[in-house]
Amino acid sequence: MAKLEVEILTLFPRMIAGYLEESILGKARESGLLEVRISDIRDHAAGKHKVADDAPYGGGAGMVMKPEPLTEAIEAAKARLPGALVVLTSPRGERLTQPLARRFAEHGRLILACGRYEGVDERVMAAVDTEVSLGDFVLTGGELAALCVVDASARLVPGVLGNTASAEAESFAGEDGLLEHPHYTRPPEYRGMKVPEVLTSGDHRRINRWRRREALRATRDRRPDLFASLALSESDLRLIDAGDDEL
Ligand code: SAH
């Protein structure tokens, strides 16, 4: 996983460009850890008017993306990125999760196809390896989903985050599958709310136990589904109910 190479295929390239130019992802591109090319599907549409969509067979509302422009855009991208995984954004796809982002980052080469309108002609699937969804809701297009895939995958490439440890301690990422503990920064008191005393104690053993306890509690209270799937140790089960003086 030395770097991540991505090509995004969209009918609306300008929607995507800005997000990938700023902050951590912008820096990752400058340093060569992330390479992103944004290609306009319309460049592969035929005729003077470059039409990329048409009415659905069988009738009904909306338009469907024609099979030829997107299929040919995928093929052109594959020529540039041999071995790339071709991912179509789609509400019927596999849900994007931290483990899936890790698989994408490890694969190293992705072609992300963004649907629009009512979706894409089913025959495009012959050129697609897998479909990915952000969740059980319907967007107007796949651009946000493609950006989520790039963002979540790129930050797992070693060196993209300044501190590699920070990617590992995060929600869902750890082997333990816990949500993350809360964070505090200065000032020590804000509107009467104080930073927990343990965090300013300088005692790293206690700090680690406080963080672990808070991660356990957050997962239990906010994501009982995740919590139920954990095989917790005896010491975690004791820690979750421990008071600050027992840390
Ligand atoms: N008619 C389709 C929705 C099409 S939305 C249906 O009812 O399932 C248009 C495009 O937006 C899709 O082709 C897909 O690329 C993208 N999209 C919409 N919702 C999405 C989601 N939850 N996750 C990922 N992509 C999505």
UniProtKB/TrEMBL annotation:
Binding site for S-adenosyl-L-methionine: G115, L134, G135, D136, F137, V138, L139
This protein's UniProt keywords: Cytoplasm, Methyltransferase, S-adenosyl-L-methionine, Transferase, tRNA processing
Annotated TM spans: none
Principal location listed in the UniProt entry: cytoplasm
Gene name per UniProt: trmD
Coiled-coil intervals, chain numbering: none
EC number: 2.1.1.228
Protein species of origin: Anaeromyxobacter oryzae
Matches recorded under Pfam families: tRNA_m1G_MT
Subcellular location: Cytoplasm
NCBIfam families for the chain: PRK00026.1, trmD
InterPro entries for the chain: Alpha/beta_knot_MTases, tRNA_m1G_MeTrfase_C_sf, tRNA_m1G_MeTrfase_TrmD, tRNA_m1G_MTases_N, tRNA_MeTrfase_TRMD/TRM10
Family of the protein in this entry: Belongs to the RNA methyltransferase TrmD family.
Domain spans labelled tRNA methyltransferase TRMD/TRM10-type: 5-228
Subunit and interaction comment: Homodimer.
Protein name, entry field: tRNA (guanine-N(1)-)-methyltransferase
Reaction catalysis annotation: guanosine(37) in tRNA + S-adenosyl-L-methionine = N(1)-methylguanosine(37) in tRNA + S-adenosyl-L-homocysteine + H(+)
Role: Specifically methylates guanosine-37 in various tRNAs.
